[in-house]
Amino acid sequence: MPNPFSVSEAQFSDLLTQIHDIITKYYISNPPKEIRPSKDVLQTTIQAEPPTALQKEPLGTYATIQNLLNDLLPGIFVQSSPHFYGFVTGGALPPALLADFLVTMLDLDVMVHLPKDSIHTTIERHTIYLLCDLFQLPRSFAPGSTITTGATGSNIVGLACGREWLFSRDDPSYSIAKIGYLQAAIKSGVHNGIKIIVSKPHSSIAKAASILGLGSENLINLPASEAEPWNMDFERLESLLAKQQEDKVRYIVVGQLGEVNTGRFMSNVPHLRELCTKYGAWLHVDAAFGLPVRCVNVYDEGTEGLADWNRIYNWCSGVELADSITSDGHKLVNVPYDAGLFFSRHPDVLQRVFENPGAAYLATSGVDIVAPCNVNIENSRRFRALPIYAALKALGKSGYSALIRRLILHARMIARIIKDELYQYYELIFPNIDDLFMVVLFRAKDDTLNEVLAEQINATGKIWVSGTSWGGSKAVRIAAANWRVNLEEDGFGGVAIVRDVLKKVASFNSS
Ligand SMILES: Cc1ncc(COP(=O)(O)O)c(C=O)c1O
């Protein structure tokens, strides 16, 4: 029977070699051409892993890892491919991938700041400074910022801070963190509670409202128009804010920079700020994949065919005026999953909500950095900062600028193929290519094909897209998010494969 707690040096290095070979092949020499496993492979891998009870005897490290590599991996789709255009997956840049291995090896826990013993919490703070630099946010945001599991986690943190601030700003004793929502609302005379004003938000805002007891049905959607629902109707917003005393409510206003279906940005965040300040509302901005436009104008080397990077940079203008901001490292920043980003101008509020009170064994010995467990949902959490730190150092500002520009240009090349070459079969839902970020939303002109378009595209196995709906009918969304997309026509990461797939699918016949 294998010893469950040890693996010989020879076996360990054999396993590392096998993993090394997979990574090298996967990344460099011969990346997988098929994004998703064939039906047969899916069936075989599932059948090879029946959900039997956990066996009594140990399988041991060597056999277990062989089982993963040989029997399970073939059944998993290749989400880190440049031709995986679904969700906004991003990918894992090599420095981030390697740093992530180290995090697992170290099994570090970011919970207490112990500067006499370790520098890891200091590295986390430095990483937050670097992120502020990357996104051109003032470094004064750092004390109120943290690294969450994802953008959903950040939205939860942002709404939790807003919820706290809306009552405790009048009187510190009205702290929801201390006395609960009900008591704080009664004491403040806000009998109808907190409502959240949005304009076609990501679903995670409703989820955050549900988790926080604010109620997912307490979202008030104020789209500016049917054509541009990501913009907010400022007139209706102001009339609601102006009578909040009378209505006995308080408001969190959520702006969105990067709407998930279209990639479009709400305009005029500075005006949103003015209204929130005038009427005392908390402004949270969800820029999960939009914030990286803040790095496209940092260097001047060549426009690569696009003149107006400053215009794109300005899609996020005013984001720094928000009370709290959500973004994501595991989207366009291209670090592995488990890396949401939260920024706020209110470290005091963040600490009041997330303080982990009265645990002597978590006493911190540093005064310069608050213990991470007092500014985030979890107490112990993964050292998420290290892969981000590695990616930021390895790419620098100009590397990120080049990456984000490439994603935008790649998406626009795809949009041009649809608009100029395949117009008999497909139409862009937003045909003005100069307004596109890295998301292309389109539909098939033939209704029968449109019904099954995403399914048919994904069935080719060559690319993977998300199905969605827009304006009452189904649509397909292509999101360029991976660091390996390129601006070539042919080959891995090029756009030719998208053209081929769309041409092939256009000949779909339901009969
Ligand atoms: C605008 C926006 N907010 C929030 C999220 C949720 O992100 P996560 O999956 O990292 O929680 C997404 C995901 O696509 C998003 O696009």
From TrEMBL:
Cofactor: pyridoxal 5'-phosphate
Swiss-Prot/TrEMBL keywords: Lyase, Pyridoxal phosphate
Domain of life of the organism encoding this protein: Eukaryota
GO molecular function, one term: pyridoxal phosphate binding
Modified residues annotated as N6-(pyridoxal phosphate)lysine in this record: K331
Protein's GO biological process: carboxylic acid metabolic process
Signal peptide range: none
InterPro entries the record matches: Aromatic_deC, PyrdxlP-dep_de-COase, PyrdxlP-dep_Trfase, PyrdxlP-dep_Trfase_major, PyrdxlP-dep_Trfase_small, Pyridoxal-P_BS
Gene3D superfamilies given in the database record: Aspartate Aminotransferase, domain 1, Type I PLP-dependent aspartate aminotransferase-like (Major domain)
Family: Belongs to the group II decarboxylase family.
Name of the protein this chain belongs to: Uncharacterized protein
Organism: Orbilia oligospora (Nematode-trapping fungus)
Lineage: Eukaryota, Fungi, Dikarya, Ascomycota, Pezizomycotina
